[in-house]
Structures are given as structure tokens and as C-alpha cells.
Amino acid sequence: MIASVKDMPDEGLGIKTHINGAGGNGEAVTPPLDSALPRQMTDSGVLDHSRGWNELLRLGDRYMQKFIGLLPIVLEDKDPGAAHKIRVASRRLEQILSLIYSKPLPAYARKLRRGAKRSRHLLGDLADCDVLLSMAERSLAHDPPRDVAAWKAVAHFLQQRRAKTSGPVLQKLRQVDFATPCARFQRDLEDNGVRLRVHCNGKIQALTPGKAEQIVQQRILHSLAHLWREFESIVEESHEDPCEKVIHGVRIATKRLRNLVEVMKKLGISGSAETLVLLRELQRAIGEWHDMEVLEHVTSKMLVHKKFVRDHLELAVEIEQLFLRNREIKRTSEEKFRRVTMNSHDYQEIKRWVLSKLPSRAQPGRPPLIAPHPASPPSVPDPVIVSFAASSK
Fold first, then answer.
1. What is the mean pLDDT of residues 86-105?
2. CA-CA distance, 341 to 350, in Å (whole number)?
3. Alpha carbons 48 and 34: distance in angstroms, whole number
4. What predicted TM-score, i.e. pTM, was given to this entire model?
5. Same structural domain for residues 119 and 146?
6. What one-character DSSP code corresponds to residue 46?
7. Secondary structure (3-state) at 41
8. Are 68 and 174 in a shared domain?
9. Phi first, then psi: what are they for 75, rounded to 5°?
10. In what helix (H) or strand (E) does residue 326 lie, and over which residues does it extend?
């Protein structure tokens, strides 16, 4: 079992380069990206322009190691929270890949992203079962216990359902190749990051610190603009049509936006910490609704079995009462969610912060998200950024 990326095969890796020397083709390599963090002085008195880029790489390494470290735990199927944890790690890994690499991503980065997404989809049902089993345990541990017979029946149903699906799901997960793309991504990280080249008018230009700052800013802002449009659109749709599918879409959009803001916080971008707190509160409100939604589906499946209802009529009545009480909790969660997203102070604060970071023609004097280096050359219009790894795959 692979416990670390360093244990993975080293075949098929990208060409190794040195950040302070020359690349494999002899051209000079410049530290590619700067940071929203305050610049630091090195021992020689020279400004360190790579601090933010290095922080991005550290996040990439941390997210990948977290994901890989959870894989054997998930496959052993002994930790009831592992499926949920690796699904969270997969989203974070996808987000960081989109910031470290330019489009189109190199083949191995796309493969790693697809693998992370597939693991999340495969483990969705197991994670839901684990959450509901934990909910059942809390209810049964309550003093006095609540709906004991109903919750025990629900827990038994969930355990049977999980036991039936876990084998095939984990077997499919074992067949996903994570070793090769993770090893190649690790090599990029060990090379002090993906070496970038700028193609403009058919020529390869040196990537100066000033231009690198612009690239990082462009990637973050592009991602923020895209995720905010997606989030705002689905929230507005939920006000007009608060059906299950739409609210689930809000839940996913909130997670994606939160993952990006987490990275922005790590890079020290102002206001991101406060916005992250507000997004967590919103996600918690939607999470309560989602748990009740999954529980409703489970209990309804139990009640449609005619043989179960006929043989356990009294228990079926208790389960139906539990179903109705949880539907009330779900309705309360929907109302709470609508209050949070319908012109509430917190929602407006999130919107205000996002719009303050996005470029606007109405505010031409807005300071950049990442302050440019004072000696940086004029920006080249519409550069196409490609990764060195992508060009040598």
C-alpha cells in the first residue's frame, strides 16, 4: 500500500530543472510566482519574491499528501469518517491544481484531477451512510434516548446498505491510478514548482517576478470571478425555486468558493479570513438541510417495503413519525438557509468582499490583489501561459 508519494514509482517524470540556474534547454529560470503576503528580505538584502509561490506549492504538497495519506485508510474501511475526509481533500486538491498549473493542464495533472473527482463520486454514498450512522449514535446516546426503536432500525438498515455497497465501491477505487500522476506532481513540487514559459507572438519570453505576480493574480481572480458567478446564480435560483436539486447545487457552489477562499487566506489576502468564517456558517446551514434530505430518502425507502411494514407495523409507525419530525427540521433548515442568503448582512458582506477583489472598469485605481514588483517590466497583452511540464509530457 502506498503511504507516501515518495514511495511511488519515479518513471515518466518531467524534466528536472533548477530554479536558480538554467533549465534543461539552457534558458534562465526565474522564481515564477509572487504572493499577496508582505515581501521579505533575504539575508543578502534582496527581496524574496517567491514567498507566496512557495506557499502555494506547500499547499499543493500538503493537500496531495493529505489525499494520498487517506487512501489506505479508506481502503481498509475501518475509520467511519475517512470517506468524508478524503472527499474534502479531493476538492482542495482539485482547487490547488487549477492555481499551480496553467490551462491546458499537463496530462498527469488532468489525470490526478480526474482521479480525485472519481474518488469523491465513488465514496459519496458511503460518506452519507457514515454521517447518518453518526447521527443515529448521537440520538441513541441522548439522555433520555430519543426514538430508540426507530433509530435502531434506521441504523441497521444503513449498516446493511453500507456493507452491500462498500466492497464494489472500494474495488473500483483500488483500480484508479493515483501513483503515476502524484509522482509527477511531486517532482514538480520538488523542483521548486512548475517552470513556466510565456508564449507571446510565437516567442518564448523570460518570466520575470513582475510578470509572475500578474499571472498569480490573474489565476486567482479568474477563479474567484467564475466561482462567484456560479454561486450567485444558483443562490438566486434557490430563492425562486427552492427544490432539492437547486439547494444541492448551492451546497456544491459554496464548497468550491470556500476552497478558493481558504487558499486566499493562506496567501494572506486581506479580508479572506473573515469571509471564510461567513462561508463556513452558510455551509453549516446547508449541511443541516442535506443531512435531513439524505435521512428522508433512507426512511422513505424503508417504508415502501410492504413486507417490512406488514411484519413490523408498530415499528413502521415510529419510523414514519421520525420521518415527519425530521421533515420539520429540514423545513426549518431551508428557512434558515433562505434567511442567510436573502439580503442578510453576512451574505452582503461576502458579496462586498468578492466584488472588492474583482477588477472593475468603474474603479480603474483599484490596487492589485498582488502588489506588482516595482522593477517589473510592462505587461505583455494577452499572454498564453503554458507549463513546462505540459510542453515536455
1. 91
2. 10
3. 9
4. 0.75
5. yes
6. -
7. strand
8. yes
9. -70, -30
10. helix 313-341
